[in-house]
């Protein structure tokens, strides 16, 4: 497939650019900043929030769009609306106009961040954003649902957990998404025979995981990594009350940071 990635210079973007290419996809990207490892003929440097021509060019001819571009931390409400709602709307409109068949949206676990720990958290849980960032992701998912129902665009909304090279704290023993599994998850969403509209949790096959991976597995996702590899090290060094509390909610520390800062 020809796959266009917005936010291609970010951590997940660079991972997918290489990983999806290695999986056989023809991948192009766009970002307003140059990748930290230098320029690439695969990535166009442009701000798609304002540059109509650049956005149109990157989605034209694409079979699918992976929409990652956003401010990936808490902001004031107006910035959250710009980066998660208005920008996602632009990408959806241009993708639909260009005849793109499928879109993968980088949502976040913070869309349901105030959900308490459960035996298995399903994707049907009600929206419980923990921040304006999480609120923006809830609205982004709603826009994706609207474009699916209105225009038949196939969409996967990925409620991504803790994307890092390795888990860093007790919470991440449950919520970690490895770079390799991120590629596997997005590739599954791109190639699933039947996608429709799907919301799935983006985590690895963690022994301590409590977010339901059933919907992602139904699309063909086969995670191979497990945060338990680092459990002994993390448990021996992180015993704080804050760390334990952060493990009790989906959104972790986002449930206690100052709203809008």
Give a quick rundown of the structure:
The chain is an alpha/beta fold and 261 residues long. It is built from nine helices and nine strands.
List keywords for this structure.
37% helix, 261 residues, two-stranded parallel sheet, 9 strands, Rossmann fold, alpha/beta, globular, 7-stranded parallel sheet
CATH topology: Rossmann fold
Gyration radius over CA: 17 Å
Overall outline: globular
> How much strand content do the residues show?
15-25%
Task: Report the CATH C-level class.
Answer: Alpha Beta
- Derived structural class: alpha/beta
Descriptive overview:
The chain contains 9 helices and 9 strands. With 261 residues, it is α/β, with parallel strands linked by helices. It has a single domain, classed as NAD(P)-binding Rossmann-like Domain (Rossmann fold, 3-Layer(aba) Sandwich). The chain has a 7-stranded parallel beta sheet with strand order 3-2-1-4-5-6-9, with helices on both faces. A two-stranded parallel sheet has the order 7-8. Strand 5 (102-108), helix 4 (132-151) and strand 6 (154-160) form a beta-alpha-beta unit. The radius of gyration is 17 Å and the shape is globular.
């Amino acid at each position: 497939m020809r796959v266009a990635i917005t936010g291609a210079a970010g951590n997940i973007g660079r991972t997918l650019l290489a990983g999806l290419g290695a999986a056989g996809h023809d991948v192009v990207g766009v970002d307003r900043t140059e990748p930290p490892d230098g320029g690439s003929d695969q990535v166009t440097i442009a701000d798609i929030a304002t540059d109509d021509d650049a956005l149109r060019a990157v989605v034209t001819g694409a079979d699918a769009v992976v929409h990652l571009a956003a401010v990936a931390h808490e902001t004031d409400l107006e910035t959250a609306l710009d980066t998660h709602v208005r920008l996602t709307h632009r990408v959806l409109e241009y993708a639909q106009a260009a005849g793109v068949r499928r879109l993968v949206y980088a949502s976040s676990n913070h869309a349901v961040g105030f959900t308490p720990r459960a035996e298995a958290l399903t994707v049907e849980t009600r929206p419980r954003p923990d921040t304006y960032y999480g609120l923006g992701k809830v609205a982004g998912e709603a826009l994706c649902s609207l474009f699916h129902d209105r225009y038949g665009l196939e969409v996967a909304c990925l409620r991504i957990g803790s994307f890092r090279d390795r888990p860093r704290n007790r919470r991440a023993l449950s919520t970690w998404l490895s770079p390799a599994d991120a590629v596997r998850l997005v590739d599954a969403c791109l190639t699933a025979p039947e996608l429709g509209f799907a919301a799935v949790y983006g985590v690895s096959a963690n022994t301590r995981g409590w977010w339901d991976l059933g919907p992602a597995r139904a699309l063909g996702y086969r995670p191979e990594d497990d945060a338990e590899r680092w459990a002994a090290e993390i448990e021996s060094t992180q015993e704080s009350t804050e760390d334990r509390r952060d493990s009790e909610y989906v959104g972790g520390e986002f449930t206690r940071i100052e709203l809008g800062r």
